[in-house]
Structures are given as structure tokens and as C-alpha cells.
Amino acid sequence: MIVLPPLVWALLALFCPLLAAIFIGLFARYSGRFSSWLSLAAVLTSLGAAITLLRAQLARPERFLEETVRWLPQGGETLAELGIRLDGTSITMLVVVTAVATLVQVFSLEYMQEESSHAFGRYFGYHSLFVFSMNLLVLAPNLLQLFLGWELVGLTSYLLIGFYWRKPSAARAAVKAFWMTKLADMGLVLGLVVLFTHSGGFSWTATLTPEVATWVSGLLFLAVMGKSAQFPLHVWLPDAMEGPTPVSALLHAATMVAAGVYLIVRTFPLFEQAPDTLTVMTYLGAFTALFAAVIAVVQTDIKKVLAYSTCSQLGYMIAALGAGSVMAGYFHLTTHACFKALLFLGAGAVIHAVHSNELSKMGGLSRSMKLTTVTFVIGALALAGVPGLAGFFSKDLILETLYEKRLWVPLGLLLAAAGLTAFYMGRVVLLAFFGEPRSRAAEHAHDGDAAMSAPLIALAVATVGVGYAASRFAALIGASYAFHVGPVGVLGTALGLGGLALAYMVYGSGAVRLESFALLAPVGRLARSGGVDRAWQYGFRRIALGIAAAVGFIDRYVIDGFMNFLGWGTIVLARRLRRLQTGNVSDYVLAVVVGTIALVAWGLYG
Amino acid sequence: MTLGWADFAPLAIDLALVAAILIVLIGDLAGGPRAGRGIGYLCGILLLGLFAGSFFLDLSGPSMGGTYVGDAWSTFFKRLFLAAGALAIFGSADHVARHTPTRQSEYHLLILFSVLGMSLLPGARDLLLLVVAFELMGLPLFVLAAWAKTDDPRGVGRHAPEAALKLYLVGAASTAITLFGLSLIVGLSGTTNIDAWIRTAPSPLWFAGGFLVLAGMGFKIGAVPFHFWVPDTYQGSSTPFVAFLSVAPKLAGFAALIAIIHRGLGAGLLHRPTLVTLAVASILLGNLLAVAQTDVKRLLAFSGIGHIGFMLLAFLPGTTESIQMLLFYGGAYVVTNIGAFLIVEQVEDAAGGSSIDDFAGLVYRSPSLATAMLLFLLSLAGIPFVVGFWAKLYVFLAAWEAGLQWIVVLGAIVSVVGLFYYLQIARAMFMRKPAAEAPPLGSSLGMTFAISLCLAAVVVLGAFPAPLLGEAEAAAKAFVAKPTGAR
Question: CB 3.0–4.6 Å: which of A106, A115, A512, B199 could bond A120 by disulfide?
């Protein structure tokens, strides 16, 4: 075991991926293979460093370390600092990010192998940049650095969603994601400004007046809604599935979208000062959880189901944080990272074999893709909340929290969402892996090789095991945890099992036909309609473009006209003044003499 | 007065530089002229080594009975000059080796002499040492300005004699004015010790001395109306030398000005509107005339006059903060301007001229050079996040604090004009096609090295300006901490 100070490990975890990204960007772009090894070496170093830090932290959970350097000095003061904060919260997230990133990169080695060398290298360059950006965010000692990382992960998200940029839908999805999250990020910028003007710094431990705290936390939450895809800013996430599937697993399921939740966890001292914001979070999170779960039921694209499911699960986390339990929200983030990454990678394996995202092209895959089926089912059961698996513990904790706080409405929404979650996961599993193959590709599908199988196995093991680490996790972040069986937990589990059973009756045995329930038809139509999406489009076309047209008019004819006049005037003036430069050295010396006399005369008698 | 070892410690770098000069001189005499770029690279490595050494040696303390004082102030300037010298020599090595293969060592020695003069200047506390150092810096520049002279009527160096002569004639007049002013000051105070001047009661003649020094130094830094030599000399001289000329002597001029006026005569002594006019005239005229230029070297010359105007803004108030910002601007200007001129050199060398048209389609001929040039231009224009942005921002902040708000507004507007002409070059590089016969551009090893260093500094300090700011702060504090000023 190499003994290094924790700071060195943290710096290694942070900068190795950056170096890899720079190196790939500058030199190795045209050797894709080499780029991938470089990127993998960097992320493995990060992972090693993260695990080392975690082990040290587990031994002394209360320890924290903060090292900063002056970034923007102003006079004798310091405007902003950059640095590293190591504590239980940041180290846990660091491990989650680097572990999932490592597995996803390994998976990508095989998944992306048909890309050209150039594209392959570019892909891994983006991945390295992402790991750096995410670590920058996670290790931030203040909100300003967190914001830097936040914007950088937004950039890499844009780049990776638009990875197949020749495909118009992918390019559009990338732009849409950028737009929506940028819109929300205005909240973060404004929140920073308000925080800075009222506290003189970017620290999240500042004590604010209730009014200011509400403003700051509300503005920050706006950014969270964008990044973590909460209603009504969730519309970019399903479209983001245009990116390569491993990217969806890493960015748009396990880590980047969870950055919003992490932001709240990190800055919870600010949020705690604003009870109104917390209430909004609880209701909005719970609503998103149910809303997205309903839409997930009617999706026919396997990735879209998972995408809406991610929205829904993020809603759970937000609701838990709103109810005041950092432990519940943050723990669900961690377990969700495991099983959702597993599900996405499993979906990736299926898509790789079937060459389609559509559930209607799958079916019967359990015969030919045994490993994928087993691991996917483990992930699905964890998501459905089957006791013993990771998702069960964290979801149970969330439901318990809301129950204790007597938040009946959000609790009801979340319970309903739990039933639906189990139902749509049962549906996906049954449609994709069981029954008869519904396409030629599905008949001839097979499991991936080692590079694709190993991450699935690793994540499946984590999905089974991580739930039992809850009390250690609690110790790391300074909370406490004890498992107990309560009425709401039993109810939630029952609903989950019921959802699974119903899914079997509908899609497995065919005992129940959904069409026989007339009540469901309008709900289904509504869920398929994409109403929120259209509302945004309408708002964008009518309002934003309308304002833009007016501003454009002023810009083109008033401001540009004025600027053109100024520019023209400058050039004319410059041409005239040019004659001063005669080229005659005697004139130059004359200018020196006259200038000197003028200077002395004015200086003395002016 | 007895000399001890302690007297040499603050001068360790300068003495090492003298030794290096002697070694190169003797080696050249003994070995005879040599082709190849080895001699240039050797001199460059020497300067770089001394630059690195300055971080490990303790260069503080008085020397020669207080004639010379080493502190953070003198060390900061020393590093700037050593860095500028090293970058210029690495950038010149190829040019000199190809154009004047038999006289290479003379060129590099002259640069080393000039750097030695600059290096001694900021620590000088006695006027005699200061003037001698100043002349040691200036005299080699006249020779170097004529270096590119050629009999070929279409050669790049055909204007070199004119360039050198203009520099010399205007320079001679200015030196006379400076010395006249200094003689008034010394006559009235009765001492050449700069720190002792503060005890003299001010009189009109005393102020006249100060203004005469300012006027004479105005030539060296190229402030309006003493700037007329600047574009002509830049255009005619060999470009790698211009890279050096455009930054190092100007900062030395500021070091001398600050020593004589702020430190010697007392900060805020000189009539302020006059100084403000000088700064504003430089900013306006430099930037306006740059718009009308079609030659990149002349364009950079005029824009350089504008930059001097911005530095004068920070020079004016003479407070610790403003001096700190001036030093930061100086550091940023060194790396940015040298980098830009070295790229001009390569284009000029291939095309035989340095008009904006010669930059057309540079991105097709060398993507890396075009990208580097773009970053240098953005830094000159003051765009975030390259180092020039912070430089300009901090100077504006210093001027604002000093009550020059309207000039800051004016400077911000003029910066837009700056963006216009800088981006004209960028547009030529990226949006126009190269001439049909233009081949791809390759760089020599030394050139690549120098440009890479400049670029790294521009980008890294742009993202993270704190280290240079910290150094500048320490230097400015060391300068102000002395018992002067309060009059």
C-alpha cells in the first residue's frame, strides 16, 4: 500500500483524467485504441485514489480536509478560491463517479468498437473530460468551483449526446439538452450572485436571513430542476437518449443528472434555512416521481423507459431531501447509480445485439443472452424495490422519512409511483427477455464478450450488496441508520410486488388485458402526447422567439446602425490621423522637442 | 567602503550573466564563427537557467553601500527581463543562423548586454548606476535595429538602416532631455542618491526636472507624442528583435520612471492632468491609428502604443495596488507580445512581407500557429479567459480606484476598437483562403519552444492569474515599503 497524503490522492483523482483529456485532444485523437487505453488508465488511477480515500475515511469518518488556493485575488482580499474539500460526502460521490465511469469505459471498449478510430478516440477524450469535470464539481470547497464543474459536465453532456452529430435527431437532442439546462443554470448564476452580495463569499455554510436564504435556495433549486430533470424541465432527458447507450448509463442515469441532488446534499446548510424551498422540493419531487413513472409505462423504446424512470427516481431523491433527510436522498442516489447504470448497460448489451431500441424488435432474449438477462433482472428487481436488493433499502428509507414527517400527499404520490415502477420494469423485462423473439436479430442475439460482461457482473454484485452498507454510509455523512420494518415500508413493498405481479398477468401470462379498462385509455393518450414538450415548444416559439425578433430588430437597425456609424467614423478619422506619421525623422525629433516643451510648460503652469 | 561577500549576493544573477557573456565572447573569439543555431540555443538556455535560478537564490539585501538594493521589486523585473531575453533569443536563433550565419554570436551577445543593463536597472538606488544601466540597455538596441540590413532592394531587411537611424536620432534627442532633467534634479538636491531626493524642497525647476525625465523616458516607452519612431523601427527591423524591443525596454523604461518619479520625487507630485493627457493620447492615437494599418507589424506597433497608454493609467496613481497592476500588465504583455511577434516572423519569413494579406489562410498552412496567434490576439484585445483580460481588468480597476472613472469608460470603448483590428488578422487567418503557392509552415525547434512557452503562460495565467498577481503584489509592496512618498 502506497502511503500518500490524502490531498495528493485527491489531486491525482482530479487531474489524471484532465491530463488524459488534454493529451487525447492534442495528440492521440487519431489513434483511437491508444486514446481509450490512456483514458482508462486515467480513470483507473482516479478510482484507485478514490478507494484509498474512502478506506481512510471509513477509519475516521468525522475527518475532513479543506485546501484552497487563491484564484482571483483583488487587492489584499480574495475574490474567489479554488481547492479541494475531502469529507465523507465528497469522497462517497467520488467513488460512485469514478467506479461507474471506469465500468462504463470498459463496457464502451466493446460497445463502440465499430466506430472509426477517430470517433473512438474522440469518444474517450470526452469521457476523460467528463470525469475531470465531475470530480471538480464533487471536490469543490465552495459554490463557485462547483459551478465551474457544473458547467463543464453540461458541456460534456452536450458533446456526448451529440456524439452521432451526423444524425439530425442527435444534434437536435444535444442542442435541446444544452438549452434546457442552460436556462435552468441561470438560477445557479443568479443564486451565486445573491449569495455573494449577501454573504461576501461562495461558501454554503453562510448564515443568511430567511428571505435571502429562500431566494438563494430557490434559485439553486431551479438549476437542480434542470440538471436533475424535474418536472417541467425534464423534457431534455428522454431526448438525451440519442447519445451512445454507455453515455446514457454514466451521464444521464448514474452521475451527471445526480449532480443536482449532490448540489442539494452539499449545500444543505443553505437549504435548511429555507423551509419554503424544502416544501416545494418535496411536492415537486414526489409529483415528478409519479408523473414520469406514468409516462414510462407507455414507452416503446427501452432507453426511453429507463430515462423516464431516471426522472422518476430523481424525484424520489429530491422529495427525500425536501423532507429534510440527507441520508435518505443521498443513499438513494448511491444505490440508484448502481442499479440504473446496470440497467442501462444491460439495455446497451441488448441494443448491441438486436440493433434496435424498440421493445417490439426484442423478445425471448433470455434464451440466447443468459448473462445479460440475469443481471438486467437483478437491476429491475432492485428498482422495483424487491426486499434484499439495494433499491429496496433506500426507497424504504425515503418512504419512512415522509411517513415520519406526516407528509401524506407526497407519500401517497411516491407509493403510487412505487407500484408503477415495478409494473413498468416488469413490462420491460417480460417484453424484452421473455416470450417469443419478434425479429430476426432477436433470434440470433448473443451476450457480449468480456469487456461488456464484466461491468454487468460488477454492477450486479454492487446492486445486491450496496444496500447492506447503509449504516457505514450513514456514518460517513454523519447521519445514523437503523433498518426497521414499518407499516409504510410493508405497504411500499406490497405495492412493488403487486406491480410486478400485474405486469406478469398483462405481459406474461396474458390473464389481464389492459384494453378492458376503459378508464386507462385517456391516461395512456395523455402520457403518450408529450404535452410538456409541446408546451415548451409553444412557449419557445411564441414568447422567446417573439422577444428575440423585437430585440433583433433593435439590434439590427438601431444598435448596429449606430455602431456602423461609429466604425465608419473611426476609420475615416484613422485615415486622417495617419498623415501625422510623415516618415521624416526631423519631424519626429521636432515632435519630441515640442512635446517636451508643452509637457513642461503645462505641467508647471497648468 | 569595503566590499564583502554580502555585497555580491543580491547581484548573483547579474554576475552570472557577466560570466556567461564573457564565456560566449571568448568562446566565439577562440572558436571562430560557427554555422547552426547552437550558439543561439546556448544563450537562450543560459538566460532560462538564470531565470530559474532566480527562484532559488536569495537576491535581497543592499549592495555596494546601498547603491544597489535587491528586493522583491528588483527580482520581479529581473525575471521579466530574463524571460523576455530568453524567449526572444530562442525565437531569433533560426532567423540569425540563416541570415547572418557568421555574425550570430554578436547578435546574441548584444541581447545579453541589453538584458544585463535591464537587470541592473530596477535595483539601482544611485542615479549614476541607474543611468549607466539604462544606457547599457539602450545602446545595443541601436545596433540590433540595423541588424537585418541588406543590399537586396526587395529583401525583408531593406528598411533596417532607416529603422535604426530613426531610433538612434530620436533616442539621442530624448536621452539629452532626460539627462538635462536629471542634472536639474541633482543640482537642486546635491546628491545622486535617489532615496535622498525626498529631503529637497520642491521648486518649479525641480518639477521641470521631473517633467523632462518623463518626456525623455516617454521616448523609451513609446508614449504619444514621443512615439513616432515606434512603427517605423518595428517595420524595418528584424521581427524577432522587435519582439524583444517591443516589451523589454519599455518595462525597463517604466522601472526607471517609477524609480525616479514615484520613488525619488514622491508619488503624486507631478501635475496630474498633464499625465492623464499623456495616457489618454497614447490610448486614443495608438488604437485609432492601428485601425488604418495594413501591415501587421505596424498594426502591432500602434496597438503597442495603446497598451503603453493603459500601463500609464496604472502608473499614474502610484499606489501599491496600481503599481501591482502595472507589473501584472507588464508580465502579461511580455508573453503575449513576444508570442505574437514570433508568429509574425514566421509568416514574414515565408511570404517576404508582413501585410494582413500574408496572413490569409494561415490556418490551412499551419493550424497550430494560427490557433496560437488567435489566442495571442485575444489576449492583446483583453478577452476572457486569456491573461490579457485580467491585465486590462486590473488596470481599469486600479484607474477606477484612483478616480479616473471617465478614462476607464473611454478605455473600455477603445478596447472595442482594438478588438476590431485584432480580429481583422484573425479573419484573414481563418476565413480566407491562402495564396495558391503558399506552402505549409514549419517552425524551428527554438521557435516552437518559445511560442509554446508564451502560449502556455497566456493560457495558464488566463485561467489562474493568482501566481503572477501574488508576485506582482510582493514586488509592489517592497517598492512602497521604503521610507518615501509622503510629502
Answer: A115
